[in-house]
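Re-run with default settings, no changes from the original entry. Doing this only to confirm the output is reproducible before filing.
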Amino acid sequence: QVQLVESGGGLVQAGGSLRLSCAASGRTFRRYVITWFRQAPGKEREFVAGINWSGGGTYYVDSVKGRFTISRDNAKNTVYLQMSSLKPEDTAVYYCAAERPGSDYVDYWGQGTQVTVSS
């Protein structure tokens, strides 16, 4: 069992920055790849970024490369998504998820946090 709780969403102007947090708990969460997804109204949920908890390897969708940074804080059991140079098209509900390494299967989802970027 893994529990994921997102926070840090809000309203920001285009070009601004926002940091999302994903607090993880449970016995086995360090075995997973922790990922961020987002879903805008009328669109399918899409992968944004991921990080291996133990190894620290990261990967990003092309649309956010150079603007978003995923990181982890071992002491706080928290994964962060630092979002900079935000664009209106980044507006979405952002979800933290735990994926099985080497697969695209999500075992656990957080509840989501709303990010709104105004023009």
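DSSP finds no helices and eleven strands in the chain. The chain has a mean pLDDT of 94.
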